[in-house]
Structure formats: C-alpha cells, structure tokens
Description:
Blueprint lengths: L4 E2 L7 H4 L5 E4 L7 H10 L6 E5 L14 E5 L22 H9 L7 E6 L7 E3 L7 H7 L2 E6 L7 E2 L2 E3 L5 E4 L14 H12 L6 E4 L3 H9 L7 E7 L1 H8 L15 E6 L3 H7 L5 E3 L2 H4 L2 H4 L5 E6 L2 E3 L4 E2 L2 E2 L2 E2 L6 H10 L4 E5 L12 E2 L16 E4 L2 E4 L5 H10 L6 H11 L1
Parallel strand pairs: 1-10, 2-3, 2-5, 3-4, 5-7, 7-10, 8-14, 11-12, 11-15, 12-13, 13-14, 15-20, 16-21, 20-22
Antiparallel strand pairs: 6-9, 16-17, 18-19, 22-23
Helix pairs in contact: 3-4, 5-6, 6-7, 12-13
Amino acid sequence: MKTPRTITPAQLDFARLIRGGETVGWAEATAEPIFLTHALSEQAARCPRFRVFFALNLANAFAADHANVTVTAFGGGSAGRRFFANGAGNVIPGNISDLCGLIAAGQPRIDVVLLQVTGPDTEGRYNVGVGIECLREMIAGARLVIAQVNPELPWTGGDTLIDGECIDLLVPAAHPVFEVAAREIGLVERAIAGHVARLVPDMATIELGIGLIPEAVTAALADKRGLGVHSGAVGDGIAALMQAGVIDNRHKEIDAGLTVATMLMGTKRLYDYANRNERIAIRSPCYTHDAVVLGNFHRFIAINSALEVDLTGQVNAETAQGRNIGLTGGQMDFVRAANRAPEGRSIIALPATSRDRRHSRIVARLPDGVVTTPRADADCIVTEHGIAELRGRTLAERARALIAIADPEFRPALEQASERLL
C-alpha cells in the first residue's frame, strides 16, 4: 500500500513538480485548495509551460498574468471571468452532468491534482469536506496528487472520503475555507423570492442555484412544510431551513432524511453546521446531476437564474455584452428533470433590469446568440414584477406574458419588437 509523503509548505516547489505541457486541476468554488493555488500562482513564473483547469472559480488565489500558463475552464462565472476578459476561446461549454465523464475520458486530461482534505481517520482515509466534484476522476488519471491537509474543513458524509494511498504529497496548511457571503437582500430580491415561493408546494424537493436570489428564496420558504433538497450547491439559507424544521427531507422518494448536494457554498456557519452532520450528504455530480437519479422525484422544483431571457423563452446564463461571465452549470440538468417530474416546475428567476436599471433583462432577442436553456424547455420565468408561465404556450402568448413581467419602462419597446418578431 502506497503511503503519501508529507512535506512542509516551505518544501513545496511546483517548478520541480510540474512537467512541461501538463495540466493542473482542482475542484471548483469553495473546494479550491486556496493555500496550494496561491502557492502555484506565486511560483508559476518559474515553472515550465502548463495549463490550469477548473469548473468554477470563486477565489483570487491564482492569477492569470503568467505568460507560460493557459487557463481552461467550464465557464467564466464569478471570479473566473477575469481569465476570459479578452476572449472565451478556452471556455469549455457543457453541463455539469457531463463533467466527470469528460475528465475520465481525458477531455481534458488532468496530470497534477490539487485538493484540500481533513483527517485522516483511523483507517487512513481523508475527507474533502465542502465538495467532491470530479476529484475522483481527476485523481484516477493523474500522475501526481497533492493534498493540502486543512483542519478547518468540515468532515462531511456522502462521497467525500479519499483513501490515503491515492495521495502522493501531503502539505499540512490550515487555511479558512472560502466563504460565499450573500450581499444584503434588497427589495427586488425579496419580491422575486415571494413570487418563487408561490410556486413551491409543501413536501417538494427543491434545487437552488447560487447567489443573492437563491438566498432570498430560502428566506421566503420559511412557512413551507416538509421540504427536501437535492441540489448542486447549498448555502446558509438551506442550513437555516433545516434548523427550523422546514427542510426535513422526509418526503423524498430517494435519500429520505438527507439534504444532498454537490457543494457547500456559504459561510463558516454552514460549514460548522455540516461538520459531522448525518443529515447532509455531499455527492459527486455523477449522482446529483444524473438524469436517472433525478427521475425519481415526483415533485421536483428547480430554481435557477439567468442573465437574459428573450421573448420566446430562450435563456442566456453565460454571456453579457459579448463577455463570458457565467456558465452552463447544472441548469439544463435540473430544468429537464423538473419538466419531467409529474408535479415539477422549472423556475428561472432574475431581476427585470440590470443593476443600473439602464438595460432590460427581458429582451427581444438574445444579442450574443448564446442559449443556455432553449425555449422548448422554458417553464416559469420570474422577475420582481411577477410570473410568466410559458410551458405549452404559443410564441405570441409567451411574448405577452414576458412583457408583462418586464420593467414598465421597457415594455413599450418590447411590445413593438414583438410585433416585428412574431
């Protein structure tokens, strides 16, 4: 049995560890091993030419200004958008349900894996804490696996155990887990959340995206009963609903009693709550986003966001004014699962305008031509002005419903545009 070698942070020398032309990969979002990625950034100029791959980047630990480094990602969301400010040629569009399979097939092949773990337990196993993502597939094909041993990670249940023999180098380095603190919920978000809550029945199994609106939605669900969760990411609001007894997962057709998610994305409050919590399971996207698994739910409510929606119901969650600032993520995986569920609803929630109120986010046509969710899969679109129910409606009916939830200032122009389009 292979035993990992422990080195000190001072002994970590990526210039000696990375070979020319290799790809370095790590798990997305809060699972990023920030101590390691920061060290890689600091040492990158001394390394041979290499590539970096991640799905979603939230931190600023790794910089992009190294001539010998190519950054490839599954999307340009959040902090990751800085890597694609001058072009999105290295973005891989795809659904999260495809991610593990792509990595296993070597698209891209990950040669050096960076991860953070806590442990070990008495059997020599480590725990990845806040998210497993496609780490198993990365590790299976890697030449070198480097693990930051971070005692600040929570120990979670699900698919989160990594055998010590899978790791080559251990680097003990305590570091706060990356926190995703929502901004203060405003009147627009509260209004959107109120409309969304009307579409969520008691005893439903819900999926939520990440960001301010999903956190507002969790606050608006406080009077519901018997909810369950099967999601990509969960934040602090889910923990609050679990503690309040609103989410008990008792009525889920599978994983009864368990909140299931790919990733914890919140603050220390969430991470402390999840630590050793037998009611939370962190699972691989091979499970959380799998169509067969999702097909078990009878009353599945998918709640996701968008950057723009056009008058036919096409949804863009990836680009704005030609810049790649979002990603496909799990939106289509969950949208189609909700549409297939006998009592499911797919909800796309977004503000009616940009933050400066200069641009409508209900548009006549998607200007960048990027469609994340096609109009054939559109169900409910929600803004602060109400709900547009699109499924089964004609294009003309859809346009009228969407104009009705646009900001009043932009409705006349949208009505004129709809006359030319339809």
